C-alpha cells in the first residue's frame, strides 16, 4: 500500500474505535511508556489529542509529566508559515481548539525546538523501520528537523507496525521508539 492508502486504512480503523476502547488503549500505551528510558529529561513536547479524529488520549501522559515536574511544551499551528510554534505549558496557559479541532495554547512562553529533549509524535501508521505516516502536511517532519540531533522521538499508536513502507522520503524523520498498547518498538541503533 502507498501512503495515501495507508492513511485511509488507519483513519477508518480509528473511526471504528469506541470512546471506551480509546480510553482503555490510551491507558495501556501510557503504562508502556513508563518503561522507556526517557524520564530523566527536562523538556517534553506533547500533542493534545484531536478527539474528533479519535486520536490517542494523551491526558494521562500529561499528568505523569506534571507529576514528575517536567517542562511540558505544546504546539500551535502556523498554517501560513507551514510550521509549529512551541509554548511552555503553565498554570496560566489558555488552551483553545483551532478550526481543525486541534487543542492549542493561545500563546505564552516560547520554546525553541532545540530546547526540547523528548517529542511524543502523533501518527496514523508506522513501519518496522520507525517511519511514520501522519496526516500528510509535513508539520511534524518540519518541526523534528529543527530539533537537536539527539532529541528522542516517541510515536504513539493504537496499532502494530506495518512492514517497511515503500515510500520514504529524505525529509521523513524516523522515530526512535513507537509505543502501542501491547509492545514497545525500538528503532535506536
From TrEMBL:
GO terms for biological process: folic acid-containing compound biosynthetic process; tetrahydrofolate interconversion. Its EC number is 6.3.3.2. Keywords: ATP-binding, Coiled coil, Ligase, Magnesium, Metal-binding, Nucleotide-binding. One of its GO terms (molecular function) is metal ion binding. It catalyses: (6S)-5-formyl-5,6,7,8-tetrahydrofolate + ATP = (6R)-5,10-methenyltetrahydrofolate + ADP + phosphate. NCBIfam families: MTHFS_bact. Belongs to the 5-formyltetrahydrofolate cyclo-ligase family. This is 5-formyltetrahydrofolate cyclo-ligase. It comes from Salegentibacter agarivorans.
Amino acid at each position: 500500500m502507498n501512503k495515501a492508502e495507508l492513511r485511509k486504512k488507519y483513519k477508518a480503523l480509528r473511526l471504528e474505535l469506541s470512546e471506551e476502547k480509546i480510553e482503555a488503549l490510551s491507558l495501556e500505551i501510557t503504562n508502556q511508556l513508563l518503561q522507556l528510558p526517557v524520564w530523566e529529561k527536562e523538556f517534553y513536547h506533547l500533542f493534545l489529542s484531536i478527539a474528533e479524529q479519535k486520536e490517542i488520549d494523551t491526558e494521562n501522559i500529561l499528568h505523569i509529566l506534571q507529576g514528575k515536574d517536567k517542562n511540558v511544551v505544546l504546539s500551535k499551528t502556523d498554517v501560513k508559515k507551514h510550521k509549529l510554534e512551541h509554548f511552555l505549558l503553565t498554570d496560566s496557559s489558555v488552551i483553545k481548539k483551532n478550526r481543525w479541532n486541534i487543542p492549542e495554547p493561545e500563546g505564552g512562553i516560547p520554546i525553541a525546538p532545540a530546547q526540547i529533549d523528548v517529542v511524543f509524535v502523533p501518527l496514523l501508521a508506522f513501519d518496522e523501520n520507525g517511519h511514520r505516516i501522519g496526516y500528510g502536511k509535513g508539520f511534524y517532519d518540519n518541526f523534528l528537523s529543527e530539533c537537536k540531533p539527539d532529541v528522542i522521538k516517541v510515536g504513539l499508536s493504537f496499532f502494530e507496525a506495518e512492514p517497511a513502507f515503500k515510500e520514504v522520503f529524505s525529509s521523513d524523520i524516523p522515530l526512535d521508539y513507537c509505543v502501542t498498547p501491547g509492545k514497545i518498538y525500538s528503532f535506536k541503533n
